[in-house]
Amino acid sequence: KIIDKLTNYHPEDTSLILTLGEIDLRNHVHKQSSRQNRLPELIVRDIVENYMSFLDKLRLKGYQVLVNAPHCGGGTGHASFPLEERNDMCFYMNSLLLEECRQRNIRFAGLHEIVVDPITRKNRENFFYDIHHLHLPINKIGKSLQSVLIDRFLNQPELKNKSKINNEKINGICNILSSN
């Protein structure tokens, strides 16, 4: 469906920032783990494999693809699995995504280690607008998060010489991304 929506865009002029995994982490990983009687880590591996296959298709069409990592495993509204366990799966998913993106020379950025406490593995509530969503750039916290995300997309020394990207385009795209 996403590819169908891109028909009016010219791939050589279009950069796509895709946020991957948030709904899967909140709703699908543990449900599928229980249904399939498989470890959640194996379900996450399958999900990442599917994402990368999709990203490969977009790249073959000529799109510049960037990955915005999931920031957490969801809020306190999902009582069936502890938040800490979902955040552990988010960390694991981000590790797999990062490795796959590096292999493909895809820019990867996220905010997980900022918005999730590494000791308690709970969300740092001051960064969240509600139980799932980070603050938007309409306030100081949102502007700061957006600034960090933009900086992380732009300052990836291992990619600078390999990946053409227009800094102004990234800034504009991240403004849209953060405000949606």
Question: Which structural traits does this protein have?
Answer:
180 residues; 3-stranded parallel sheet; disordered C terminus; 8 helices; 3 strands; mainly alpha; 54% helix
End-to-end CA span = 19 Å
Helix content: 40-55%
Unreliably modeled segments = 171-180
Q: Give the topology string: H per helix, E per strand.
A: HEHHEHEHHHH
β-sheet strand percentage: 5-15%
The overall pLDDT, averaged over residues, is 85
* Structural class assignment: mainly alpha
Number of helices: 8
Largest sheet, strands/sense/barrel: 3 strands, parallel
Tell me the radius of gyration: 16 Å
Assign an overall shape. Answer: globular
How many strands appear in the DSSP assignment? Answer: 3
The largest sheet has its strands arranged as: 1-2-3
Description:
- The protein is mainly alpha-helical.
- The protein contains eight helices and three strands; from the N terminus they run αβααβαβαααα.
- It is globular, with a radius of gyration of 16 Å.
- 29% of the residues are buried.
- Mean pLDDT is 85; it is low at 171-180.
